[in-house]
Specification:
Helix content: 55-70%
Strand content: under 5%
Order of helices and strands: HHHHHHHHHH
Distance between the termini: 22 Å
Shape: globular
Oligomer: single chain
Length: about 210
């Protein structure tokens, strides 16, 4: 359906210079996690590669978890605590989109679902502890994330670049009045820094 090559991902940082031109996962988590670990355990690994479980942990570790009011201020974006929590959810959705795209591009199809479930289970376990998402329930977030994912998939299928997908995310946040129109460029810069598209593909290149 869609994939992300390392070559494409590496263009993301270079595209920062182009900013001037641009003005269900439900059910028993413990059961699904157990099944996912068993399935991933069947993968044959090469001598110098990460295991899938190590890959899942590495992807989570590479992903910025939250965006604070102070961090937004550093990018010239004024926000309340509640707005920062909602922006955190939108940034998480964009990160998950690219993580899942990298999984699809680099992991054999029969293991993709299991690896994706492990990642979602890890985020759910940290919801509103390590992930500062505010009062939004996990199930509510998942529903919104699926909507975002469909939007972003459509853009990639149309040939849009990672920076164009980030621009769509920024427009969604502006529509939700999380940022002002004048702050959109600053938000795009933040998304480049907080959504490390190239890193995800590079990490999964080492899964054998």
């Amino acid at each position: 359906m869609y994939g992300v090559s390392v070559e494409s991902c590496r263009r993301t940082l270079a595209q920062r210079a182009g900013l001037d031109k641009l003005q269900g996962h439900t059910g028993d988590s413990r059961v699904s996690s157990h099944c996912a670990y068993r399935q991933l355990g069947d993968m044959n690994m090469s001598a110098n590669s990460m295991t899938p479980r190590q890959a899942a942990a590495a992807l989570i570790a590479a992903m910025p978890i939250g965006v604070s009011v102070q961090q937004l201020e550093e990018y010239g974006i004024e926000a309340t605590t509640e707005q920062a929590q909602t922006i955190t959810q939108e940034v998480l959705s964009l990160n998950l989109f690219w993580i899942f795209a990298a999984i699809e591009a680099h992991i054999p199809q029969k293991y993709q679902s299991a690896l994706s479930e492990l990642i979602l289970d890890t985020i759910e376990a940290g919801w509103n502890t390590t992930v500062p998402a505010g009062p939004t329930a996990w199930a509510t977030y998942l529903h919104e994330w699926q909507d975002r994912r469909r939007r972003y998939i459509r853009l990639v299928e149309e040939g849009m670049s990672p920076i164009a997908v980030s621009a769509e995310a920024a427009a969604l946040m502006e529509e939700r009045r999380l940022v002002q129109e004048a702050e959109r460029r600053n938000l795009l810069t933040l998304l480049i820094d907080f959504v490390p598209v190239d890193t995800y593909g590079q990490l999964l290149e080492n899964v054998g």
